[in-house]
Specification:
733 residues; 40 helices; single chain; mainly alpha
């Protein structure tokens, strides 16, 4: 206890209290996790955590730095329950820290990482439920992540997660507060309490304190010296320069390190912007930007030689460099608005990506994905073009999508969804600004590369992509829905007498990684729908179904551009179909054929929606069905049967048939590619005399419409060489 008090007093008396506190805390953390005898005994752990808690009282950044350090540590440290519990109970490790929540959520991997789930459940059971060392408000982020895992888990959810969430709800309802935890011993507590200074307000609390006088000039001078150093090609001089940075205390991993990187990025970006505006200086505009990237590379490459002088790891060093770049970018974009220049930041991130590819290939890609997510177009619109180029860069996109166990898929999916959500309000309108048109073309090209090289990625995330794309973007949606697994050979949809019921793939469900029940789970509609699909629902369910699909406020309607909750409609349609398909498979699969698929509670839901919804709602519902007409699988087969059955059963409601035809034909009149299931369904509709397609009034409502239908029919029916094409063409005419 005496040592704790002495350290506390030394930090309090230091002219740079925060920096001194953080530096000492970093040494304590290293001691805590070094595996030595002191850290292996209970008294040693309690002494270290009590010291950290004492430091946190006088240097408020200690808790933040310790939490960030643990969040980005290796799994052995992050999943060390004994140490983590001790730090949480002493209020040093903040479970609500955005960095900690984000990194642990990624580690949990939506429940697939069972040891990580067990660790979080055990930690919260101990600190929240048993010891009450924290309140539910102190771990909201982790509880929300566990809730998503419980909702997304198929089959049997993790029982420990369910019990923990129930306990947390009970604690939240009762308003239970955290109970103060004992320190090392009563004597230590008493001595520490006596040493505590009076609490006074700190001016500007929560804001970054100004840089120390002269720091900016020092950093600028160091950068200029670094540029000259690397131009001299003297490797020994380069190492000596890095050692001088260490000797000056700029790379210890503390607040000064953050300031060093921030000022470096600001100086380089400002210099680059000035030189780009001067035609005579454009040839050397990127010299300092490239030099800064080279500095980060050298620091990472030779980290093992000087890591005793810093708490930084290769990963945390890169994270600091990227986080600082994004932070400065946000500040420039907010201040300069239309005058913002994306080129310096694009150059810096590109050089970092290229330079660091060999130094740390596996960890690097996820750091870059997180950085790009933090500067997505919705947040920094002036960086949109550079952002899209970085997202699709050859050193990033393939590495993310080839990452082990498809971990990179989640990160890349998040990036593409961010792009779609940014463009969605513009794509809804028929007249788009010229920059958005260019961004849209770039997006199409990226998706074409994905379609060619990574089709499974588009296949398994098709649902969330269609959710984020407005109905008017037909070609973009077609491109996504045309993807099919590389191992699959698609049957020619134009083959005469093709019977898709006999295809072996038609009984297999497709893999879907998108949480397609998420919108439905958040709606009060879900319990009643499940009861109805199981045959236990009330008669009034179908009558009230339409009202559940409407948005509740005018603000939501204005933002969405429609009165209807489109994600909820998409979720309802696919969930209802999945239930019908599983029931049919359980009942014997092929027994009963198409008639078995197009009957039962699920078909009643579709028929009721198709009949009762207005034109706008019906169009959205039919679009949700058409979004599942993809490569051969059980969903494509089911929805093709449903769409054709709805057409056939709408004899007394011609508008339904017209809208079904519209949804199909507007997807066929755009440029290729066209989804296989879409072609199969439309060919069946126009060829099978059961549907009497060519005799409906809307087909011949005008000469232009009739010519359009004949043109599409010729495309669909004359693709296959042979005599069948001529006969089909005459029939279409």
């Amino acid at each position: 206890a005496q040592l704790i008090m002495q350290a506390r007093m030394l930090v309090m008396q230091s002219p740079v209290r925060e920096e001194a506190g953080v530096a000492y805390a970093q040494k304590l953390c290293r001691r805590l996790y070094d595996g030595g005898k002191f850290a292996r005994c209970q008294l040693g752990v309690e002494w270290i955590t009590a010291s950290l808690a004492s430091l946190n009282d006088v240097a408020k950044r200690v808790s933040k730095e310790v939490t960030t350090w643990i969040a980005f540590s290796d799994n052995d440290r992050r999943l060390n329950k004994e140490m983590t519990v001790a730090l949480v109970n002493s209020r040093v490790l903040q479970l609500n820290s955005p960095d900690y929540v984000r990194e642990m959520s990624k580690l949990l991997d939506m429940g697939r990482n069972v040891p990580a789930v067990d660790f979080i459940v055990g930690l919260l059971n101990h600190s929240l439920v048993e010891k009450r060392a924290i309140a539910t408000g102190d771990c909201v982020g982790l509880l929300e992540t566990l809730t998503k895992i419980a909702q997304a888990s198929r089959g049997k959810p993790h029982e420990g997660v369910i019990r923990l969430l129930e306990e947390a709800r009970n604690l939240a309802r009762s308003g239970a507060q955290a109970v103060p935890q004992p320190g090392v011993d009563a004597k230590a507590k008493q001595m520490l309490a006596g040493a505590a200074p009076p609490q006074v307000g700190v001016p500007g609390k929560g804001k970054e304190t100004p840089d120390p006088p002269g720091l900016r000039d020092q950093v600028q001078f160091a950068l200029e010296k670094w540029v000259l150093q690397i131009q001299s090609n003297d490797d020994r001089g380069v190492l000596q320069f890095m050692q001088s940075l260490l000797d000056q205390g700029w790379l210890k991993g503390d607040d000064i390190t953050d300031r060093f990187f921030r000022i470096s990025v600001e100086v380089c970006a400002d210099r680059c912007t000035q030189q780009l505006s001067d035609a005579s200086m454009q040839g050397i505009a990127y010299v300092q930007i490239d030099a800064l990237s080279k500095l980060v590379l050298m620091l990472v490459r030779y980290l093992d030689e000087w890591n005793r002088s810093t708490t930084l790891t290769k990963q945390s060093l890169l994270n600091k460099a990227l986080a600082t770049t994004v932070k400065v970018m946000h500040a420039h974009h907010a201040e300069r608005k239309a005058g913002f220049n994306q080129k310096p930041f694009h150059r810096l991130m590109t050089r970092l990506l290229l330079d660091l590819t060999d130094a740390m290939p596996e960890a690097m890609i996820f750091s870059f994905a997180d950085a790009l997510q933090a500067c997505q177009p919705r947040l920094v619109s002036g960086f949109s073009f550079a952002w899209l180029e970085l997202v699709s860069h050859r050193s990033l996109m393939p590495r993310l999508l080839h990452a082990k166990a498809s971990k990179g898929w989640t990160a890349f999916h998040r990036l593409i969804i961010s792009l779609c959500k940014y463009m969605e309000p513009y794509l809804r309108n028929t007249e788009m600004p010229e920059p958005i048109k260019l961004l849209y073309k770039g997006t199409l090209r990226v998706l074409l590369v994905l379609l060619h090289d990574f089709p499974e990625f588009l296949c398994e995330y098709h649902f969330s992509f269609c959710d984020a794309i407005p109905p008017s973007c037909i070609q973009l949606r077609n491109l996504i829905l045309s993807a099919f697994p590389r191992h699959m050979v698609l049957p020619d949809p134009f083959t005469p007498q093709l019977n898709i019921d006999l295809l072996p793939e038609i009984t297999k469900p497709p893999a879907i990684l998108s949480p397609f029940t998420q919108a439905l789970a958040a709606s009060p509609l879900r319990p009643e729908l499940d009861k109805f699909l199981k045959g236990r629902g009330s008669n009034g369910f179908l009558a009230s179904l339409q009202q559940h699909l409407l948005l509740s406020s005018q603000a939501e309607t204005a933002a969405a551009g429609t009165r209807y909750n489109t994600p909820l409609i998409n979720s309802l349609v696919l969930h209802t179909a999945a239930h019908a398909i599983s029931q049919n498979a359980a009942a014997g699969g092929a027994q009963g054929g198409k008639s078995a698929l197009t009957s039962g509670p699920s078909m009643e839901v579709f028929r009721k929606l198709c009949r009762d919804l207005d034109t706008e709602g019906r169009y959205l519902m039919l679009n949700a069905i058409a979004n599942q007409l993809r490569f051969p699988n059980s969903h494509t087969h089911y929805f093709s049967c449903v769409l054709l059955a709805l057409f056939q059963q709408s004899a007394d409601h011609q508008i339904e048939r017209e809208q079904i035809t519209r949804v199909l034909i507007e997807r066929l009149i755009v440029n290729k590619p066209h989804p296989w299931g879409l072609l199969i369904t439309f060919i069946e509709l126009i060829k099978n005399p059961t549907y009497d397609f060519w005799n409906h009034s809307f087909v011949r409502s005008s000469r232009e419409i009739e010519q359009l239908f004949q043109s599409v029919a010729r495309f669909c029916l004359t693709q296959h060489s042979g005599g069948q094409g001529g006969a089909a063409g005459e029939e279409a005419g």
